[in-house]
Amino acid sequence: MTTVPAERLGYRSMTGPWHSNDLDALLRRVAQRDADAFATFYDHTRTRVYGLVARVLRDFGYSEETTQEVYLEVWRTAGAFDSAKGSALSWLMTMAHRRAIDRVRAEQAATQRESRYGATAVEPSGDVVVESVLATDERRRVAECLDGLTDIQRQCIEMAYYGGFTYAEVSQRLSANLSTIKSRMRDALRGLRHCLGVP
Amino acid sequence: MTEPTDFELLELATPYALHAVSEAERVAIERQLAVAPPSVAEAFRDEVRAVCETMTAVSAATAAEPPSRLRAAVLAAVQPSVARRSRWRTALLAAAAAIVVGLAAFGAGIALRPAPKPTMAEQIMAATDVRTVSGQLSGGTATVVFSRNMNAGVLVMNNVPPPTQGTVYQMWLIGDNGPTSAGTMNTAAVAPSTTDLLTNLRNSSALAFTIEPGTGSPQPTGKILAKLPLS
Question: Strand locations in B9-102, DSSP E?
C-alpha cells in the first residue's frame, strides 16, 4: 500500500498548533507533579477531549463531569505514558473515549442510544459542537476523509465510536453478520488512516 | 491449532481499539493476548496503536470549546491551596492537610505526624470507581470527587463567597434516613479555592448545602442552595 507523505496531508497539524513532541514533554512534566505543565496540557487539549466526550454523551453535565474525570486520570497516571507506544494526544484521546463510552453505557440503555443515534444520523453533528477557530481546516480535511468511506463503513464507525455500541450490537442493528461488521470497521479505519496520512 | 484463535484475535483488534467490545470480551481478549505468540501480540498492538492514532486525528472534527468554569474545576483538583498558604506541593496533599486540620480539631494528635501511607485524598483519586460531580453554589462552583469503594470524597469549592458573619455553610449527606451533617465552613474557612474531605458517604444519594446560623444546626433549617447527586 502506498502512502502519501504525512506532512503533505498535514498529519503534523492534526495534533494542533503545537508539536506532538511538546505534548509528550508536557506529559512527562505532569508525571513529575508539575501543576503548571498540567494547566498547559489542559489548555492545549481541552477542545479535543471535551468535544469528543460531548459528541458521545450528548449531555452538557455528563460531558463536563467526564472531562474532569479524564484530566484527573491524566494527573494520576501520566507516569504510565510511554511515548514509544504512541503519541501523548492519542494516549489522552483513547482515555477520554473509553471514559465517555463507559459513561454512556452506564447512563443510557441501548434503546435510548438507538433513538439518539437515529436523531444524530439525520442531522449534522454541529448542535453541541462549538466551532473552534484553529480547527476549521482540520475539520474539513477529516470530513472529506469520512466522506470517502462507504455508507456502511461510516455507519459502523458512527454507531460504535460515537454511539457506544459493541460490534455485536452494530451487527444486530445493521442485520449483517459479525465478521462482515469487523471487516467493515477494519476497512473504515484503514481508509481513514490512509486518507489522513497517519503513520 | 492456535492459528484460528490468533486470527480471530487479530480480527478483534479494531473493535477492541474502538472500545466496541463488551466488558466480558475485553477481558477475554486481554487474557488471550497475554498468552498469544509474541508476533501475534505485536501485530495486535500495532493495529490498536494505528486505530487510536487515526481516531485521534479524526477528533479534530468533533473539537468543541468546554465552558470556562471547567478549567478552574480541573486545575483546582491539582493546585496547592493558596488560601491556606499551604507549602504542600499538590492539591492532593492540600486536601490531606484538610484531613489533618480536621482530625487535629478532634484532638487526634497522631494525625500531625507525616503520613507514610497514601493520603485518603490520594487513595480516592486512585480509586477505580472515582467519580466527579459539580454544581453551582452561591455563584461559585462546588465539586465532589468521590469513591464509593473508599466511602469518602474530596470537596473542592471555587469562587464560592464566604457566608456572612455569624453564619456557616453546612454540608449534608442525604441518605435514607434524611440529612446528616457532613461539616460546616465559617467565613474564615471559605477561601477562593477551598478543599475539604467527606467521609462516611455510606449510601447517601447526594451532598446538599445550606446556610445555618451560628456554628451549624443538627438538621438543616436554611433552604438548600445546591444539591450534588452522588451517583
Answer: none
